[in-house]
Amino acid sequence: MSPLTVYIVDDEEAVRRQIADEVHLHLPGCAVRTFSSGEAFLDGANLQAHGVLVLDQKMTPGMSGSEVFDRLQKVQSPLCVVFLSANGTIPLVVEKMQMGAVSWLDKWGTVQERVDTLTKAQSLAREKLVRWSDLQSGRLRWERLTLREKQVLAQAAVGKSSKEIAAHLSQRHFAFPIGYRVVENHRARAFAKLDVTSAPEALLFLNDHDLLSLAQDSLNQSPGLAKDE
User: Fold this and answer.
1) Is the pLDDT score of 121 beyond 70?
2) Coil, strand, or helix at residue 73?
């Protein structure tokens, strides 16, 4: 798994250098990138990367940490955000934590406080990366299924028999009727491609990989005249 990156965004060079040194020393295996403004970060960083963002709330001139965070929310960035806060900005940071920020750091706190907070943020970022990788793996396996295999699996996963599935699909797509023996073949191939052996396992796979809605959506698609349908 690729190393996580810790992004540090602060308008004070001394603060950026200090936190970067602490990350290198106490969070081995993490890459570090620093930015002097929110604009530079938004322009130069991969906002869809998994990692930790240490974000100063009050930066002058330019965007505030709060504005940068709002931009990240709009693009659904997976970055784990830790706000840096000085006196007078704590209420704003608390508000952002309620909206999804991981934590906040007192800008004048101790080294140990920063290390503890960043270590927790790093662990959360790794958990999110593992979860994302698992979802991507499941999606790739799902996309290997033909449309008919998806439709059959969607019904089989909720306990429908092959005859019930054949009747349902034939009624739903009357121009393309399907027999129950063909359904059984699709079911067997779908199970093999997803590496499941039963309907409960298939349902668990769909649920664990956030594929239930896609499975249901497949039932609304016309199978067309594909050779394997």
Assistant:
1) yes
2) helix
Residue 151's pLDDT band (boundaries 50, 70, 90)?
very high
Which tokens hold the place of 218?
């497949």
Write out the two tokens for 26. Answer: 């106490």
DSSP string, 79-123: -EEEEEE-TT-HHHHHHHHHTT--EEEETT--HHHHHHHHHHHHH
- Ordered by where they begin, the domains of the chain are 5-140 (3.40.50.2300), 144-218 (1.10.10.10)
Beta bridge pairs of residue 19:
none
Distances 9 to 57, 98, 202 between C-alpha atoms, Å: 9, 21, 44
Nearest to 84 by CA among 69, 68, 65, 112: 65
Spatial distance between the Cα atoms of 125 and 51, rounded to a whole number of angstroms: 5
The confidence score (pLDDT) of residue 28 equals 86
Runs of H (alpha helix) within the chain: 13-26, 38-44, 65-74, 90-98, 111-143, 147-156, 162-172, 180-194, 199-208, 212-218
pTM of the model: 0.75
